[in-house]
Amino acid sequence: MKYDELKKSDPPIADLIEKEIKRQQHGMELIPSENYVSQAVLDALGSEFTNKYSEGYPNRRYYGGQEFTDQVESIAIERAKKLFGCAHANVQPLSGAPANIAVYSAWLNPGDTVIGMDLSHGGHLTHGHPVTYMAKIYNFVRYKIKNLETGEIDYDQLRDLALKHKPKIILAGFSAYPREYDYAKFAAIAQEVGAVAMADIAHIAGLIAAGELKNPFDYGFQIVTTTTHKTLRGPRGGMILTQGKVGNPLKEVEKTMENLPTLIDRAVFPGFQGGPHMNNIAAKAVAFGEALNPNFKDYAKQILKNAKTLSEKLMSLGCKLVTNGTDNHLMLIDTVTSFGLTGDIVEKTLDQINITLNKNAIPDDQNAYYTPSGVRLGTPAITTRGMQEQEMEQIANWIVEAVKNRENENKIEEIRQAVQELCLKFPIPSSK
Length: 432
Ligand SMILES: Cc1ncc(COP(=O)(O)O)c(C=O)c1O
What we know:
Layout: H1 4-9, H2 11-26, E1 28-29, H3 39-45, E2 56-57, E3 60-61, H4 67-84, E4 88-90, H5 96-107, E5 113-117, H6 134-137, E6 139-143, E7 145-147, E8 152-153, H7 155-165, E9 169-173, H8 183-193, E10 196-200, H9 205-209, E11 223-227, E12 238-242, H10 260-272, H11 278-292, H12 295-316, E13 330-334, H13 335-339, H14 343-351, E14 355-356, E15 358-360, E16 374-378, H15 380-384, H16 389-404, H17 409-425
Parallel strand pairs: 1-14, 5-6, 5-9, 9-10, 10-11
Antiparallel strand pairs: 2-3, 4-12, 7-8, 11-12, 13-16, 15-16
The structure holds pyridoxal-5'-phosphate (PLP).
Pyridoxal-5'-phosphate is lined by residues 33, 95-97, 100, 124, 126, 173-175, 200, 202-203, 227.
């Protein structure tokens, strides 16, 4: 049986794992950056590849015994290239933040400028928020949404900033933006000022791989970074995809856009990381194989249909959504306008009915990040469980009912039981 050995050797940890599995089975995961991996991905992640050191790259390692690590990493690379249509993939970044940092260190000198999306408008911490260490090394300038009712980016502001600051990277990417970018406009501005066009597709990688959202490479981007554990439904990890000439990662090359694949490889190892986590790379390979399967397209389509239905139902129940809807897998409720409550209170209330989402800033939020004016939610995980439009309508009803009745213990318990009952009808993949 699963975890039998662990139960004998370390009961407290085995007990916590069991409790976490139960929490996941009995609850509804609406955090848009989370998902449930398959048992096959978990198997690869828990495999003996975890025992192996393999500094370097396939066929160019600094340790012996690499006949199988080389093969597994090469398979992951080839599958990633096929999924995203690019010349090169580095599958070694330990997660999304290290992937972005590796790109900065590959292409920038200290003091160089990057233009990224403002955090409260949807950007990510690693795109230059002042609290990050990267912000001490590089100069980050921010663009924003122009029209908060439609979500349209202020491309005029972006171009003005680019002409003024002469950035080395223009970065398109987000963790909390419910619309699609106009990648061609980003790429044209980057080209005008001689910057690299970089997209961080961490949230939407699965939707792009499935062909359901636009692929930045089709619009002239040179670098794409991503996590592998969100809509792509793999293990926790990162990846850097590039166009350009693939060279020997052990040899120094000139800093040109053509040489980006080699510059990136050298920045990941030995520049920034040590030995790759081969068990994780094996699990990435399995997840990429799953994403190449035609049924992954159906999954991606359903994520989008579910998000549309959930957002429309929430709005019909009186919720104010940032940009009034969504074109992807996520949405943000302005909880102050909708309920007169900050996001932390809504998050805690929904925790009580086994629905998990996260408090989140809304554009130009006047409240602090710990008590912001909104919550962020999305459909990748519940779609993996097989939930569809009908369940989305029910979930929207429960969210609004629970928040409005948050002081009524009986009502909260009644909704919690209903949520749990529904969840048990849609098991998580690893417990099927
Ligand atoms: C757009 C974006 N980039 C990078 C990251 C960082 O990824 P990780 O938490 O795996 O380091 C995230 C995480 O949420 C993200 O949303």
